């Protein structure tokens, strides 16, 4: 078993002077990991009432699948997400939670926690897993032969995303303990700073991993975070259809025990950059593996945020105690928080802007919503491909006391797990902090969304491909 698996890994590590397998040899006891994962798989199944709820959700879902959909001006090229890239290459078999590498120490910790039914933590904060706090610096380098000239710019854009929004800094170095960006078939990272040997810890970023959102996700693991759908409270938000997951993949949905304080008051977020897409690890990809519970069914299509959300950012700032960089305080509107990089202004939730988060983003188009049904076509023409999103904001405003009811229809798009390249983000809650609902798949009928206040923000985004959608809306009581 061990040697077969090991050979498979060596075989999949194709190009360049790769020492991915070396790293696995040093850090991961594959035999033990396989045994541990198998034991977890055996434990993971649903209770009868969860199965019954899934049957209902499955029936409801199948009604939303459109017959012979024809995308308008769109291509049907499918972009893959992290889990699909890793799955295709067989890499995920030896990874914990799909794209997570574990050290022997972490493995032992998880084994112990499982045996004692205690909690694994969403963010590991023990000494030895941290890059420091308040002003954490993560040293990194590229492995010899890594195609830095082509991939480096996207990687540094992802690092800049975290630097702009948190107190984390990245420093390219040539010696000392560091994260080493390596060529690989897939995308994976250790959780936190390993620190159990000298040298480097791998951050595997293959060609398929080249989007800011994907790299930000892997960097979250490097900071010390696991996935959202492994939170102890996930069973209150989603049902996992274990009948639609291959036995070998079930451990990807292993659950943490309860340890509330370590979630740092960050709520469960479907649109988090650290949540799986609903069809990740599905045996039958025409059906989800993760169903949003009935109360949250508007989120069914919108799992896995394209980039880290406001709450993902707050989580990282709490993890590293970034707030300690500010001595003064500042007041912010609409859920904004003090910007740890400039204490005299606020960091705003998506859809708000200005030093105090009391303005809408520049260029937001306002649309009056009346009792009469209106339809608006939103079109982002093809443009220069970029690592940064072009975003058009539409603010739908109903008269005071009314609500906005809106149904989106995606007309033309590439489609991708995670709505990464393009789509709509719809903010409909009174609380501005949670991420909106992402909408991007033209093959399904999207849910009707009703705002909690008289305003709804619809943001159309793209990395350069053409995107077209139609929104139909009216004011309701
Ligand atoms: C579709 O493509 C045609 C021809 O390029 C163009 O005229 C039209 O505006 C496009 N429609 C949308 C919705 O993008
Ligand atoms: C852990 O939980 C399982 C299932 O609830 C139970 O059967 C087992 O006895 C528990 N183990 C310990 C050590 O408490
Ligand atoms: C901090 O933000 C304020 C308000 O926008 C701005 O005037 C100031 O230049 C910023 N300071 C730095 C160091 O960027
Ligand atoms: Zn991951």
From TrEMBL:
The keyword Cytoplasm does not apply. Its cofactor is Zn(2+). Zn(2+) binds at residues 217, 221, 227. One of its GO terms (molecular function) is metalloendopeptidase activity. GO terms for biological process: molting cycle, collagen and cuticulin-based cuticle; proteolysis. InterPro entries: Astacin-like_dom, EGF, MetalloPept_cat_dom_sf, Metallopeptidase_nem, Peptidase_M12A, Peptidase_Metallo. Binds 1 zinc ion per subunit. Gene3D superfamilies: Collagenase (Catalytic Domain) (3.40.390.10). Disulfide bonds join 167-322, 187-209. Residues 122-323 form the Peptidase M12A domain. The active site is at residue 218. It comes from the Eukaryota. It is found in: Secreted. Residues 1-15 form the signal peptide. One of its GO terms (cellular component) is extracellular region. Keywords: Disulfide bond, Glycoprotein, Hydrolase, Metal-binding, Metalloprotease, Protease, Secreted, Signal, Zinc. This is Zinc metalloproteinase. It comes from Pristionchus mayeri. The lineage of its organism: Eukaryota, Metazoa, Ecdysozoa, Nematoda, Chromadorea.
């Amino acid at each position: 078993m061990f040697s077969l698996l090991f050979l498979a890994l060596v075989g999949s590590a194709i190009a360049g002077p790769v020492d991915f397998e070396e790293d696995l040899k040093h850090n991961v006891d594959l035999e033990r990991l396989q045994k541990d994962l198998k034991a977890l798989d055996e434990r993971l199944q649903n209770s009868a009432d969860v199965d019954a709820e899934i049957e209902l959700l499955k029936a409801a879902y199948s009604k939303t699948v459109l017959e012979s959909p024809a995308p308008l001006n769109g291509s049907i090229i499918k972009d893959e997400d992290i889990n699909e890239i890793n799955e295709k290459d067989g890499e995920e078999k030896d990874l914990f939670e799909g794209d997570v590498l574990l050290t022997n120490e972490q493995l032992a910790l998880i084994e112990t926690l499982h045996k004692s039914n205690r909690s694994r933590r969403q963010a590991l904060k023990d000494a030895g897993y941290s890059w420091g706090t308040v002003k954490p610096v993560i040293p990194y380098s590229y492995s010899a032969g890594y195609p830095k000239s082509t991939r480096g710019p996207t990687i540094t854009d992802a690092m800049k995303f975290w630097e702009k929004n948190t107190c984390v800094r990245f420093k390219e170095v040539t010696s000392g303990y560091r994260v080493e960006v390596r060529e690989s078939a897939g995308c994976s990272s250790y959780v936190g700073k390993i620190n159990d040997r000298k040298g480097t810890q791998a951050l595997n970023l293959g060609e398929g991993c080249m989007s800011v959102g994907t790299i930000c996700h892997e960097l979250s693991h490097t900071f010390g975070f696991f996935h959202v759908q492994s939170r102890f409270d996930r069973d209150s938000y989603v049902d996992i259809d274990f009948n639609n997951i291959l036995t070998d993949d079930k451990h990807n949905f292993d659950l943490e025990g309860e340890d509330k304080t370590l979630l740092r008051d960050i709520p469960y977020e479907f649109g988090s950059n650290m949540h799986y897409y609903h069809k990740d690890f599905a045996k039958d990809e025409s059906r989800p593996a993760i169903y949003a519970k009935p109360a949250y069914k508007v989120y069914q299509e919108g799992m896995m945020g394209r980039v880290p959300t406001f709450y993902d950012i707050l989580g990282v700032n709490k993890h590293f105690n970034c707030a300690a960089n500010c001595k003064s305080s500042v007041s912010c509107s609409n859920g904004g928080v003090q910007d740890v990089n400039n204490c005299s202004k606020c960091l705003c939730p998506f859809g708000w802007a200005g030093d105090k988060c009391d303005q809408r983003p520049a260029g937001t188009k306002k649309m009056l919503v009346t009792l009469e049904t209106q339809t608006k076509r939103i079109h982002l023409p093809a443009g220069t491909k970029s690592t940064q999103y072009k975003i058009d904001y539409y603010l739908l405003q109903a008269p005071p006391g009314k609500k906005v009811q809106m149904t989106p229809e995606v007309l033309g798009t590439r489609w991708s797990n995670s709505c990464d390249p393009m789509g709509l983000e719809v903010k409909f809650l009174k609380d501005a902090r949670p991420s909106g609902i992402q909408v991007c798949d033209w093959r399904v009928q999207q849910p009707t969304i009703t705002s909690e206040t008289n305003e709804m923000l619809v943001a159309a985004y793209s990395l350069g491909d053409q995107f077209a959608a139609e929104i139909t809306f009216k004011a309701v009581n």
